[in-house]
């Protein structure tokens, strides 16, 4: 309830514009991920800000809001100066520590994943028992994980690790991250095995966090070409979802399983997993999630050569996507925007051999993609290079290939390099064309130095 005397923040309300409170909250969460921050923003929080109940945000929200509106101050956003805000809210914000600075080197950044878990007793003991902590491995092995109760600190550490992996993957791809991301995953499941919780909600969050962490680590394995390991991690997440009776986690696990099956040439399995994901997701109330899962099904059907089935699934995907975002959209789906829809449709037409149509969608994807998603910028351009090459548009393909090579300086992804290598194979007979020859030579140099 709004306290007596609260003054509505009309400035902040104007900044929201025509977006619903839920849509704006989703934008806040996306912006937080872009700077490595963690905020649990929802429609209720936005309502509290706009009503004036929150006169000044805590430091985490301050960083996110100033990132969303570059050049603005808190006063420009309608907030009161921090020093004028008194009471419990002010004390809480004063105690909120600033977030750690992120570095640009993927190997250095991935070390954050280990530090996330070195936060409190149970987590430290779980990590140390697996040889992850700062103590002696032999001593840790002789001491079982601390059986004390698992609480907010430990669960938050698991959730933070999930967000950190996603952030780093968006920037750099999976190759440099998988080995270190696997360590927090083992610690998270050690918490499930050894810890007890006092609240049902805490237990549910721990199961969900561990399952999401398994999916994230599985994706890093997938992106770096470790397909059997990816399959194992996705299966682990699915088992966790079934134990916890968590349909959201189950839908996510099946979604990634479908994607993996498509990539490794098992289209029928891809369709079955996508259909299972849609059954799990149906009661969750997220049209965007159903759109993504329909696209997974479309990809599997394209792999089967089922053009009619693929087109039906694509139609369902576009219809569901057109309903827009909502509060029920899972946090992990921040990557799923119009650019990703175009990319996945391009891959369907590519699998069906309609190269020109595939290239049109891939080109749209590259133009729509948010520059924050560096890995996906490289991925979309690699798809475009392949489609243009197969469409016999060699010069355009070479130009797109150069853009991929520019991005691979920062992105380490076996999957993207493999896609580009396939395009190179198609372009090689056209090396008599000067632009193509230049690209092929540059690709060969890059491959030799990798």
Rg over alpha carbons: 23 Å
How many domains? The number is 3
What is the residue-averaged pLDDT? 81
Poorly predicted runs: 86-147
Work out the helicity level: 55-70%
- Identify the overall geometry: globular
* Beta-strand content bin: under 5%
Total DSSP helices: 23
Structural category: mainly alpha
How far is it from the N-terminal to the C-terminal residue, by CA?
Answer: 59 Å
Q: What's the number of extended β-strand segments?
A: 0
Q: Secondary-structure element order, as H and E? A: HHHHHHHHHHHHHHHHHHHHHHH
Q: Largest sheet, if any?
A: none
Topology:
Blueprint: H1 10-16, H2 21-34, H3 43-51, H4 59-68, H5 88-95, H6 106-110, H7 112-116, H8 121-129, H9 137-142, H10 152-172, H11 178-194, H12 200-223, H13 227-244, H14 247-263, H15 267-281, H16 287-303, H17 307-322, H18 338-351, H19 355-368, H20 374-390, H21 394-407, H22 414-427, H23 434-449
Helix pairs in contact: 2-3, 2-4, 8-11, 10-11, 10-12, 11-12, 12-13, 12-14, 13-14, 14-15, 14-16, 15-16, 16-17, 16-18, 17-18, 18-19, 19-20, 20-21, 20-22, 21-23
Organism: Streptomyces gelaticus
Region (Disordered): 86-109
Biased composition (Polar residues): 93-104
Structural write-up:
The structure is a single chain. With 450 residues, this protein is mainly α. It has 3 domains: 10-95, no CATH class; 104-245, no CATH class; 339-450, Serine Threonine Protein Phosphatase 5, Tetratricopeptide repeat. It has 23 helices and no strands.
Concise synopsis of the structure shown:
This is Tetratricopeptide repeat protein. By secondary structure, the chain is mainly α.
